[in-house]
């Protein structure tokens, strides 16, 4: 394997999640298509070293996030300035947890959630 190409996220409200990922997280849109045969939007977003595929589907079941459930735990984004990224997100109304330090790497990180409660992390480079 040469790396991660994309991570797929299914959202409950496509417009709300598209705004969150494209505007709040400032991930550039690569392409956006409506797939008539699936009644589904698909938006490819540039996350730097990988892409995020944002999907809508009619009536998707909610994802259990808390307590932690089996499966993908969270999606982490690397940032150069954690404090600046947290200030930007909180200024846009996104609640971030307290900044912590990874005891194994000494790197700082924090968690927040997307509109559907998917845990997201900011990890300082």
Short description:
The protein is an alpha/beta fold. The chain is built from two helices and eight strands; from the N terminus they run E-H-E-E-E-E-H-E-E-E.
What does this structure look like?
The chain has 125 residues and is an alpha/beta fold. Helix content is 17%, strand content 36%. The chain has a 4-stranded mixed sheet, covered by helices on one side. A 4-stranded mixed sheet has the order 5-8-7-6, covered by helices on one side. The longest helix is centred in the N-terminal third of the chain and has 11 residues, at 14-24. The radius of gyration is 15 Å and the shape is globular. The relative contact order is 0.20. The model has no long low-confidence stretch (mean pLDDT 93).
Question: N-to-C SSE series?
Answer: EHEEEEHEEE
What class would the helix/strand composition place it in? Answer: alpha/beta
- Biggest sheet strand line-up: 1-4-3-2
Mean pLDDT, as a whole number?
A: 93
Helix share bin: 10-25%
SS summary, helix count: 2
- The fraction of residues assigned to DSSP E strands is 35-45%
C-alpha termini separation: 23 Å
Number of strands: 8
List keywords for this structure.
single chain, 125 residues, alpha/beta, four-stranded mixed beta sheet, 36% strand
Secondary structure elements and pairings:
Elements: E1 6-11, H1 14-24, E2 29-35, E3 40-46, E4 51-56, E5 75-79, H2 82-91, E6 100-101, E7 108-113, E8 119-124
Parallel strand pairs: 1-4, 5-8
Antiparallel strand pairs: 2-3, 3-4, 6-7, 7-8
């Amino acid at each position: 394997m040469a790396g991660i190409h994309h991570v797929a996220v299914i959202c409950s409200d496509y417009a709300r999640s598209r705004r969150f990922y494209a505007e709040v997280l400032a991930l550039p849109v690569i392409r956006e298509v409506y797939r008539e045969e699936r009644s589904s939007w698909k938006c490819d977003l540039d996350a730097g070293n990988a892409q995020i595929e944002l999907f809508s589907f009619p009536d998707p079941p909610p994802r259990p996030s808390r307590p932690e459930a089996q499966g993908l735990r969270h999606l982490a984004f690397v940032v150069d300035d954690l404090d600046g990224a947290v200030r930007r997100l909180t200024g846009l109304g996104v609640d971030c947890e307290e900044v912590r330090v990874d005891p194994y790497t000494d790197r700082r990180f924090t968690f927040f959630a997307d509109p559907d409660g998917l845990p997201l992390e900011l990890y300082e480079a």
